[in-house]
Structures are given as C-alpha cells and as structure tokens.
Amino acid sequence: MTIAIGDKLPAATFKERTADGPVEVSTDQLFKGKRVVLFAVPGAFTPTCSLNHLPGYLENRDSILAKGVDDIAVLSVNDWHVMGAWAEQSGGMGKIHFLADWDAGFTKALGLDTDLSAGGLGVRSKRYSMLIEDGVVKSLNVEESPGQATISGAATMIEQL
Length: 161
Fold this sequence. Notes:
Pfam families: Redoxin. The active site is at residue 49. The chain is of the alpha/beta class. The protein has 6 helices and 9 strands. 30% of the residues lie in helices and 30% in strands.
C-alpha cells in the first residue's frame, strides 16, 4: 500500500553525513513538530536527479523556507558516503539534509519503491515530493516516469505551500 495524504509517516532511521561525520537521524528528529519538504530521487549523481531535481530545491531553498517550512530533505536509496559526496559536489551540504535510506526500508514502508534492476540500479525510490507537517503527509507528488522531475519539482512544491 502506498502512503497517502493524511497518513502518518512510518518510523525510520536514516544516515546523514555532516561536517562532524556520519549521524543517524530518526523520522521523529526530522519531522516531529515541524513542517518539512521531503523529496526523493532514484539515485544520487544520476542525470535527472543531479541536473533537474536537486538544483531546483537548492535554488529555491530560501523561497521554500520563507513560506513557513522548517527544513528540506532529499532522500535516496544510496549509502551515506554517496549522499555526502553528492551534498558536497552539489553545493548543498549544510543547506538541506541528504538522507541515505541505505536499505530502502523507509522507501518500502511508504510503498514508493521501484525495481530498476533492468537498468542496473536495483531497488530504488520512486521520484516524489511531500510536504510533511508534524509527521503527517499534507501533499504527495509522485512522478509517473523516473526520468521526469516536474510533478515533484520545487516549482510545484512552492505552489502547494
């Protein structure tokens, strides 16, 4: 079953690389009592993710936060080393959270996993964005094609805020 608007997020723990090294971050730490934009990508450093999806959120970070959002996070089924390298390479380190759902546990619990084994990627996350308020999904935008970043892009999220 896929998570829907009005549902509470499942509990999970992610890994994130910070300036002080790797840390574990729980869903409670990220979402409890906060208004957060979460977007997910099939893979760090992949073309659509790096050229279209992530840049929109980085470029519009201040506009999103100005609309009453406490935090922004990107999630991928990658390890924390890869997510940390992507944060550094993209200039996003310290601006948004780069969350590693390394075993796809959270992604599968949401029902937003997809098998991209045919392309050599294995189990990954579908591309989506969510507005989450105090752990509850307020908006959900899932792309039909993993090569697109329009429905789940920053411009759409800004309109929904």
